[in-house]
Write a structure and sequence with these properties.
This protein has about 400 residues and is an alpha/beta fold. The chain folds into two domains: about 140 residues, Leucine Dehydrogenase, chain A, domain 1 (Rossmann fold); about 150 residues, NAD(P)-binding Rossmann-like Domain (Rossmann fold, 3-Layer(aba) Sandwich).
Length: about 400
């Protein structure tokens, strides 16, 4: 079966919609994005070369509210990836109880090859050329290859175009530009809160072992919080390399090393692992926190973890998940595990619209409350419907979206 991420999303839609007894017309509507923007960004590089970058933005569904979040600057971006991400964001907002639809986009570019000036020009050009945007329509946020800095440039460009301040028009900004505290840490923090609930419900004791693929904003924060809680993070790898220590890695020291060296490779450890082999370590919890489709039919039988927390979007393909279920592996889905950023982005927009900015403790307290509620609702539906956690999360989301679509007279 194809590992196309959009096909993965549609497979889950078909399975969950049958269990949810969704109106077939709703399923038909949700099988395609509502709007697709595909455009190019011509740009003069620092060396005088002229480059043209492909750019995308998908408004997948806005039945529950304005579309929000996710701009990727990555070299392998294509429309199917953006469509899948937009769909997952639609479901993620509904799972988390957020009154918003799903949007996703970005530019096909390797930001590591851009100078600071080139990255700023590309960020500003993206916002200039994006046809529809604003706090009540489409609110972009950060994702892989973008950051608080790029979002601050985008907000500034948006406000220059319109001639007035609108802090709610862009998410994941620095606090200095009317952003929210805890924004960049939100996905990792939320994944930690969900993981703690899973540990409790499945009687997984402190000292349990964890492996992680990816050590960016998501993996780094989740690893630190779990390490501080007394769990042993024994393996971590990304594209720069990987490390393994059965006694548990010193996460604060690894953070310092990566901050200084920009890579994991070279950090003192018992043995090295790579971005693929880290998935196959004999651990209690596996946390893929990088990109989609990394656990598939060719490696699913090698996965030894008892629980997989999907910190990335779509890391487990449908065929792989069926194989894992037969082994008794619990897969806690992306639309639940990594919805912390979506929740905090909703807080950020609320703060920007009201000029009422919160302390970090309040942000994290409200994040824990909302994501824990989403987790418990998913567990209840999984039990009542006798289905997987993924199907349960999607059933809850699809039923909310269906009610809104019908109330609006769309179907």
């Amino acid at each position: 079966m194809s590992n196309n991420p959009f096909e993965t999303a549609l497979t889950t839609l078909r399975e969950a919609s049958e269990l949810a007894k969704l109106d077939p017309n709703v399923v038909k509507y949700l099988s395609k994005p509502k709007r697709i923007f595909q455009f190019t960004i011509p740009m003069r590089m620092d060396n005088g070369d002229y480059e043209i970058f492909d750019a995308y933005r998908v408004h997948y569904n806005d039945a529950l509210g304005q579309v929000k979040n996710g701009l990727r600057f990555v070299p392998d971006l294509d429309l199917d990836i953006v469509k899948a991400l937009g769909f997952w964001m639609t479901v993620k907002h509904a799972v988390a109880g957020i009154p918003a639809g799903g949007g996703k986009g970005g530019v096909k570019v390797d930001p590591r090859k851009l100078s600071e000036g080139e990255l700023e020009r590309l960020s500003r050009a993206y916002i200039r050329k994006l046809p529809v945007k604003g706090a009540w329509v489409d609110v972009p946020g950060a994702d892989i290859g973008t950051s608080a800095k790029t979002m601050a440039w985008m907000l500034d460009e948006y406000e220059e175009i319109n001639g007035f301040h609108s802090p709610a028009a862009i998410n994941d900004k620095p606090a200095e530009t009317s952003g929210t505290l805890g924004s960049m840490e939100a996905t990792g923090t939320g994944a930690y809160f969900v993981t703690m609930e899973v540990m409790k419900d499945n009687n997984i004791p402190k000292g349990a072992t964890i492996a992680m693929q990816g050590f960016g904003n998501v993996g780094r924060i989740a690893a630190r919080l779990l390490h501080d809680e007394g769990y042993k993070v024994v393996g971590i790898a990304d594209l720069t390399g990987g490390v393994y220590d059965p006694n548990g890695l010193d996460i604060p020291k690894l953070e310092e090393y990566v901050a200084e060296n920009k890579k994991i490779e070279g950090f003192p450890c018992e043995k090295e692992v790579d971005v693929n082999s880290v998935l196959e370590l004999d651990v209690d919890i596996l946390m893929p926190a990088a990109v989609q489709s990394v656990i598939h039919e060719d490696n699913a039988d090698k996965i030894k973890a008892k629980v997989i927390m999907e910190c990335a979007n779509g890391p487990v393909t449908p065929v792989a998940e069926k194989m894992l279920q037969k082994k008794g592996t619990l897969v806690v889905p992306d639309v639940l595990t990594n919805c912390g950023s979506a929740i905090v982005c909703s807080f950020e927009r609320t703060q920007g619209l009201t000029d009422d900015y919160w302390e970090l403790d309040k942000v994290n307290e409200k994040l824990k409350e909302q994501i824990t509620k989403a987790y418990k609702s998913t567990v209840e539906t999984a039990a009542s419907e006798k289905t997987s956690m993924r199907n349960a999360a999607w059933i809850n989301a699809l039923r909310k979206i269906e009610k809104s679509m019908k109330a609006r007279g769309w179907v």
